[in-house]
Amino acid sequence: MSNRYKNDDFPRCLSCTRRWAGDTCRFQGVRLFYRNGSGELRGIDFVTALVTPSPEMMYPTAWNAPLTPRHVRLVKEVAARGLLHTLHEEEEHVQKPNIVRRQRETDCRATCDTCLTAIFAGSWICTSCGRESCSACHDKVAEICADPKKKKQTLDASPFFLTCTKKQEHTLANFRPITRFGRQEIQDALYEMRAFIPADEEQLTGSLLPGPSLNRFSSSPVPLVNGAHREKRRCPPLPAQALGTVNYKDVRLFHHKDLNDANFCELWEKGTPLVVEGLHEKTTLRWTPEYLMEKHGGEQCLVVECQNDSNRRLTVEEFFKKFGNYEDRNEILKLKDWPSSTDFKSAFPVLYEDFMDTVPMPDYSRRDGVLNISSHFPFNSVGPDLGPKMYNAFASNLDPGSKGSTRLHMDVADAVNMMQYCEPRPDGGDGGAVWDIFAAEDTPKIRNFLKTLSTGKHQTTIDPIHGQTHYLDSGLMQQLYDEEGVTSYRIFQRPGQAVFIPAGCAHQVCNLADCIKVAVDFVSPQNIVRCERLTREFREQNQAQLWKEDMLQLKTMLWYAWLSSSRYGRLPSAPPPLRQAFELPANVPLPVTAAGGRMQIANLLPREPSSRMAISSLLPHQPQAGPSSSTA
After folding, report:
1. CB distance 531 to 508 below 8 Å
2. What phi, psi does 591 have (nearest 5°)?
3. Cβ–Cβ < 8 Å for 44, 50
4. pLDDT tens column, 210-249
5. DSSP 3-state assignment of 126?
6. Contact at 8 Å (CB) between 486 and 476?
7. Residues linked to residue 520 through DSSP beta bridges, in sequence order
8. CA distances to 288, 386, 412, 533, 554 from 345, in Å
9. Among 203, 231, 216, which residue's Cα sits nearest to residue 266?
10. Could you say which of 138, 365, 462, 512 has the lowest number of CB atoms within 10 Å?
11. Which ranges of 302-374 does DSSP label H, i.e. alpha helix?
């Protein structure tokens, strides 16, 4: 709080009273002071109309491949399906009395102060302490304030749920509705988005409409592979210690030259993992311990002991010097999420470029992929940190009691993990990592099984999967199969192979040798609904114990994807639903128009009879031309 206000008597926000490092006044830009001619404070009010224009967003202008009308239509349909219900609610929210207007933040992530979920629309601000609550948490305040019994139960579990300033408790009277939207802005977006949603689907309730059936985006069935590297129906055999007696699910393995949009989409829209091999043919760098010690050996890093979660600081050289020296150590150390606080591109620019040039399915997996919904995030806003990140870990084992290398968990986004380097196993066999990836529909059974393991032990409110407290060793995998009938896709990942993990699939990893891997998250059109479901689950986890901030910001991401794509053309006034045949120029890059200093939506390009395509082929069945370009 500035000294200029020290003699004024008015409510201070929680940031100004607690002086949190890096935080700013919660009332900045939304609260007004009224003073008389002598400068004395005479009243306080809140902004109901923006007095300064919102900052111009710096959207990307280049992707890994030319952006075509089919890309634009796909991104806009996905965004419309993801946002239509929320914007309908916001249209009602902005009509509430005493609505406060604020600009959408560009220098920080706006999150609910109670559940840490990213705030996109429908929020409320406390006029005393500046705490902002999402609509769900505000509804919870209304519910418990009206029921003393529920209030006691809530505060017993979460003592700070109603905390305001000066040890006061929040009541509904403290809150005013707040929005980052203008009414006309919402109405314009809804008008355009309805063009992408059939009327019968628009009546569905829920925060996200079901995603489009993406099998229509490939115009031909999955082709047979006729090249030298025929697709394999199964990955290579598992090493003996990873076999067990469970009948694991088959995993599709592709050489990178044979993987195309059609066979990728066939699996991906079903939530099925896959493996890609031969990637060392594309890399130009040595991803070895020696290279990392040479370039970064003196840097400090935080390593974790996989069995007991203890951690300590080492230099990068001290960690990698132990690689392959199995007899001289008794710990299972892991250097994960490296670099932890710096963007991979900034910290390791050469490694970053090599990885991006190598990663398979670049239209989806690259940071600038044309089918990666997150690629539309503006450069001048705080976007999600989707990687890449490096994961380096010592060998573990599958024996009873093992915690593996990465415990059972889920990621809120899709991911691809590529093994760059591996030592031989301690027994001299080929090194690698054993993955167990479970189908998303098996999650309730897995969760129920893990809860039964805790019966009679210390009870906790932590979700058994999201809490990352379990690794299913060989005995538990067998028990899970016997009791719940659930088995995994078990994969033995080798150097030069990449594993694709769909969002919402529980998975775990056990390195059988010392490994260096790099993973990157992405948001595919096929898995928006799964990402949204995970966001809700993470929010529920935060109700009992603050656990994880909503870094993905899915609704905000979809909104930016909508605005970014809208620069490249729109449909006529009354277009047919996307599910019907509709012709567009196939591969003509789209222009951006500008008027009055603000980005305006361009008219649809003229149709070209010589270059037509049906919407059924929005996703090409052949790899697109273009420059070559988390988990475990």
Report:
1. no
2. -85, 160
3. no
4. 555 554 444 334 333 333 444 454 555 666 666 666 788 9
5. strand
6. no
7. 416
8. 18, 12, 22, 30, 23
9. 216
10. 462
11. 316-320, 344-347, 349-358, 362-365
